[in-house]
Amino acid sequence: MNNNRWRTVDVVVAAVLGVAFGVIFWAWGLLWDGPASAIPLPGRALIYGIWLVPAVLGPLVIRKPGAGIFTEFVAATVSTFFGSPWGLVTLLYGLFQGAAGEFAFAATGYRSWRLPTAIVGGALAGGAATLLDVINYYPDTSAAWKWAYAALLVLSSAIIAGVGGWLLTRALAQTGVLDRFPAGRERALV
Questions:
Q1: Which pLDDT belongs to residue 76?
Q2: Is residue 13 a part of any domain in this protein?
Q3: Per-chain mean pLDDT for the chain
Q4: If you compute the radius of gyration of the chain from its CA atoms, what whole number of angstroms results?
Q5: DSSP string spanning 34-84?
Q6: Is the pLDDT assigned to residue 141 strictly greater than 60?
Q7: For the residues of the chain, what is the DSSP string, one character each?
Q8: CATH number for the domain harbouring residue 40
Q9: Residue 189 falls within a domain, yes or no?
Q10: Quick one: pLDDT band at residue 187, thresholds 50, 70, 90?
Q11: With 60 as the cut, is the pLDDT of residue 185 above it?
Q12: Contact present, 183 and 173 (Cβ < 8 Å)
């Protein structure tokens, strides 16, 4: 049996996670452009990492190739459907960030689901987001501004998406909802 083959429950759970985070993305966008806009950029990049959680959470839960891309893309799609202020470009972000976040897991041959791998996945997703943002929205800023933005965004992503995604997976496993996944079965062994 091919362990990389997606089961129906894999697709359903990844989609549910993506939809839930799509709603969170939409709400986070309101915060980003609303009250949080009082924090000038690049400092506001410290709260950016919430948009990258599915890129790490998907692989940690599903543990199959494509989980980060699928979960992040579903979240981006739902966010777009709810009226993301960034429009259809949000879909491109979902694909790119999902692929970057998943790369950390792919680099281990989909064998490491530990905290350091999750942190690297979050940081890579943050790097992808930085690249897209600088190209699309901040091409005329100074090099120092771009580096500061990149450092804060990658730090935010490593902590919120990497550490946060890992902690969220453990919390979900403790409830028993992941018992049909390796992440949930590891809980039973502890």
A1: 97
A2: yes
A3: 94
A4: 16
A5: TGGGGS-TTGGGGGGGGGGHHHHHHHHHH-STTHHHHHHHHHHHHHHHTT-
A6: yes
A7: --TTSPPHHHHHHHHHHHHHHHHHHHHHHHHHHTGGGGS-TTGGGGGGGGGGHHHHHHHHHH-STTHHHHHHHHHHHHHHHTT-TTTTHHHHHHHHHHHHHHHHHHHTTS---SHHHHHHHHHHHHHHHHHHHHHHT-TTS-HHHHHHHHHHHHHHIIIIIIIHHHHHHHHHHHHTTTTTSHHHHHHHH-
A8: 1.10.1760
A9: no
A10: low
A11: yes
A12: yes
User: How far is 25 from 31, CA to CA, in rounded Å?
Assistant: 10
32: alpha, beta or left? (left if phi > 0; alpha if psi -120 to 50): alpha
Residue 164's Cβ-side half-sphere holds a number of Cα atoms within 13 Å equal to: 18
Is 32 contained in some domain?
yes
Task: Show the domain range for 116.
Answer: 8-183
Residues in the chain: 190
Which residue has 């709260």 as its token pair? 47
Whether residue 3 lies inside any domain: the answer is no
